[in-house]
TrEMBL record:
<keyword id="KW-0378">Hydrolase</keyword>
<dbReference type="GO" id="GO:0016829">
    <property type="term" value="F:lyase activity"/>
</dbReference>
<keyword id="KW-0511">Multifunctional enzyme</keyword>
<dbReference type="InterPro" id="IPR035937">
    <property type="entry name" value="FPG_N"/>
</dbReference>
<dbReference type="Pfam" id="PF06831">
    <property type="entry name" value="H2TH"/>
</dbReference>
<feature type="domain" description="Formamidopyrimidine-DNA glycosylase catalytic">
    <location>
        <begin position="1"/>
        <end position="39"/>
    </location>
</feature>
<keyword id="KW-0238">DNA-binding</keyword>
<dbReference type="InterPro" id="IPR012319">
    <property type="entry name" value="FPG_cat"/>
</dbReference>
<keyword id="KW-0326">Glycosidase</keyword>
<dbReference type="GO" id="GO:0008270">
    <property type="term" value="F:zinc ion binding"/>
</dbReference>
<comment type="similarity">
    <text>Belongs to the FPG family.</text>
</comment>
<keyword id="KW-0227">DNA damage</keyword>
<dbReference type="GO" id="GO:0003906">
    <property type="term" value="F:DNA-(apurinic or apyrimidinic site) endonuclease activity"/>
</dbReference>
<keyword id="KW-0456">Lyase</keyword>
<dbReference type="GO" id="GO:0006284">
    <property type="term" value="P:base-excision repair"/>
</dbReference>
<dbReference type="GO" id="GO:0034039">
    <property type="term" value="F:8-oxo-7,8-dihydroguanine DNA N-glycosylase activity"/>
</dbReference>
<dbReference type="InterPro" id="IPR010979">
    <property type="entry name" value="Ribosomal_uS13-like_H2TH"/>
</dbReference>
Length: 139
């Protein structure tokens, strides 16, 4: 996801590129700002709860390239192009490999690398430190 997540006061006028606004009480608003328009917005399961078996089943059930499967928001919500490339590189899996052709070892490595790589790609981590994607294009 490109763009920025911001907090603002609800009385502040929305900027032209504010795409989503959530008002949280009388004095706080959460805004998503991006030059690109959104196709839609959905609530998704927390993929932090996805275990290895669920992940492997999702990969085995699809016939597309692994890169296409990883960036499919119905498989792993919020996983974009750059983090997917990083995960594939760290797992030593070619992006063009069909997901249903992956070996068990490939799927296990992908899951492990995804778990280790994704926290670095957060815009802001829970502790408040800036994540890699907010300061560079490589994790």
């Amino acid at each position: 996801m490109t763009g920025r997540l911001l907090f603002a006061h609800p009385d502040e006028p929305a900027e032209p590129h504010d795409r989503v606004l959530f008002t949280m009480g009388a004095d706080r608003q959460f805004r998503y700002r991006d030059q690109r328009k959104l196709q839609g917005l959905w609530l998704a399961d927390d993929d932090a709860e996805m275990d290895r078996e669920e992940f492997e089943a999702a990969l085995s059930a699809r016939r597309s390239s692994i890169k296409t499967v990883l960036t499919n928001q119905s498989v792993v919500a919020g996983l974009g192009n750059l983090p997917a490339d990083e995960i594939l590189w760290r797992a030593k899996v070619r992006p063009s490999t069909h997901s249903n052709d992956l070996t068990e070892a490939d799927r296990r490595r992908l899951y492990t690398r995804m778990r280790r790589t994704l926290p670095a790609w957060g815009v802001v981590r829970r502790c408040g430190a800036r994540g890699v994607s907010s300061t560079s294009s490589r994790g």
